[in-house]
Amino acid sequence: MVAMRENIIQAWIDAWDTGDFGALEQLTDPEYQRVSSRSGAVSDFDALKRDIQETRAAFPGLRTEVEHVVGDDEELAIFWRTVGVFSEPLAGIPPTGNSVVTRGSNYVHVRDGRILSEEVTWDQSALLADVGVPSLNSAFEKVPEDVVVDDLSGQIDLNAFKGFNRKFVTGVTVVTAIDAAGQPRGLAANSYASVSVEPPLVLVCVQKTSSTYATLFGAKYLGINILSNGQRETVGTFAGKSADKFAGIDWHPAPQGSPMIAGSSASIEAEIKERFQAKTHTVFIARVRYTESSDAGPMIYKAGHFFDSDQLTEL
């Protein structure tokens, strides 16, 4: 039993710390399955190799320590600790440079001297949570099979959902930050909301395909500018794909450097506190540290069109 245990531990450490899968593959049964206790997802050995390779690429100096092992020739529980620095992208998430110490356990089932299956407490989402990038679990849930909506598919009609969203009247914001080279970056967004007044928290949702996304993700502070009735052209600029959206834009830095766009109805600078993953988007939660406002009326957005808020009729 001791030899079997030591072989499994060494093969596992070789795979995680050096990317050498030879010994682990020799010890793995052809019917091997890996089950996540977090999500219930089941994967095979090839998927395990991809996870290890992606994680090692994101944490190049990854080091693993087995803290405790209990069990016999048929069942083993391995308790481990991993240390590393998040210095390269992982699962589409830009690196934060944060150090991480993450712990987990593997419940290993052995058949005829080979690993048949593992039940694991760790997956990539757990590692990202430990490094400070948690996921909104509901965004990754599978659709229950017993849900019935309209066409009996169990899925809502996405066009109908978009139609619902188009009925919601919002303001128009430009979210800004300073990139690693000290240049201003920004994008148009209407997915801004105030979370609370005490403490002063706000949120904004940003699509991961945005050219400004990596800058925002790596920033400590962001700016949110509520555009005014006179900034219709500014909306087009920041909703577009221009390499330099700030060319010709008058702006000034807030105390921590976030771009405040001149002529806006109001602007804030906020310290980013949380970055929640929601599949195609990241939800940024930030604490407001600085505000400024003007007498200019805010622009209004509804159903794909922009409106002058000064022309509203009071109910």
Which properties best describe this structure?
18 strands; 315 residues; 21% helix; 6-stranded mixed beta sheet
Give, in spatial order, the strands making up the sheet with the most strands: 9-8-12-15-16-11-10
Largest sheet: 7 strands, antiparallel
State the distance separating the first and last CA atoms: 79 Å
Q: How do the helices and strands follow one another from N- to C-terminus?
A: HHEEHEEEEHHEEEEEHEHEEEEEE
What percent of residues adopt helix (DSSP H or I)? 10-25%
Helix count equals 7
Secondary structure class reads: alpha+beta
Report the sheet-strand fraction.
Answer: 35-45%
Short description:
The chain is α+β, with helices and mostly antiparallel strands and 315 residues long. It contains seven helices and 18 strands. It is 21% helix and 39% strand.
How are the elements arranged and paired?
Layout: H1 2-18, H2 22-27, E1 28-36, E2 42-43, H3 45-58, E3 63-71, E4 75-85, E5 99-111, E6 114-120, H4 124-130, H5 158-166, E7 170-171, E8 173-178, E9 184-189, E10 192-196, E11 201-207, H6 213-218, E12 221-226, H7 232-239, E13 251-253, E14 259-261, E15 266-278, E16 281-293, E17 299-302, E18 305-308
Parallel strand pairs: 1-6
Antiparallel strand pairs: 1-2, 3-4, 4-5, 5-6, 7-17, 8-9, 8-12, 10-11, 11-16, 12-15, 13-14, 15-16, 17-18
